[in-house]
Amino acid sequence: MDVGGTHAAIRLPEGPWWDWDVVAWDGGQFRLAAGLDLTYHHGLELAFGDPVFVSCPSSFQDPDFRAPSPDELLKVTRQFGCEPAVVVAFEVDAGGQEPVSCLIAAERLDIVRETVLRYWREDAGPDQRFAPWVSPPDR
């Protein structure tokens, strides 16, 4: 689902999206993965295309997505000369005593719901893919 051009709180599909981490970050994308427990797989990814600003921990729990504040929009607009198409704000539990405020600005956002395995399995189905760091064992 493409939700580009939004500054409202994003809405996630139903699911157990408690545990989160960064699974990819390069010049073209910033990708967050979510699931109930990220040990074996994840079932949701937020794929930010052409990110221009990212401020969040590499792993966290229980995000509370909200609309970005006027100050947050002004911050990214001043830093980059124009308002990005997508600005996502949220508070997370990063293990400290207080929640951490997070902000991501990008040109687009795709919400991808599919099973992504985090370890090698010979019997992986066609509806499953492997995380980028997973490769078959040497034979």
What are the key terms here?
single chain, 139 residues, mainly beta, 6-stranded antiparallel beta barrel, 1 helix, 7 strands, 8% helix, globular
Give a description of the structure.
With 139 residues, the chain is mainly beta. It has one domain (19-130). Helices cover 8% and strands 48% of the residues. It is built from one helix and seven strands. It has one helix at residues 70-80; strands at 19-26, 29-35, 41-55, 59-66, 86-93, 100-117, 128-130. A six-stranded antiparallel beta barrel has the order 1-2-3-6-5-4. The longest helix is centred in the middle third of the chain and has 11 residues, at 70-80. The model has no long low-confidence stretch (mean pLDDT 88).
Layout: helices, strands, pairs:
Elements: E1 19-26, E2 29-35, E3 41-55, E4 59-66, H1 70-80, E5 86-93, E6 100-117, E7 128-130
Helix content: under 10%
SSE pattern: EEEEHEEE
Question: What are the low-pLDDT stretches, counting only 5+ consecutive residues below 50?
Answer: none
Q: Name the structural class.
A: mainly beta
- Average pLDDT reading: 88
Total domains, how many?
A: 1
How do you describe this structure in short?
By secondary structure, the chain is mainly β. The protein is 8% helix and 48% strand. The protein starts with 18 loop residues before the first strand and ends in a 9-residue tail after the last strand.
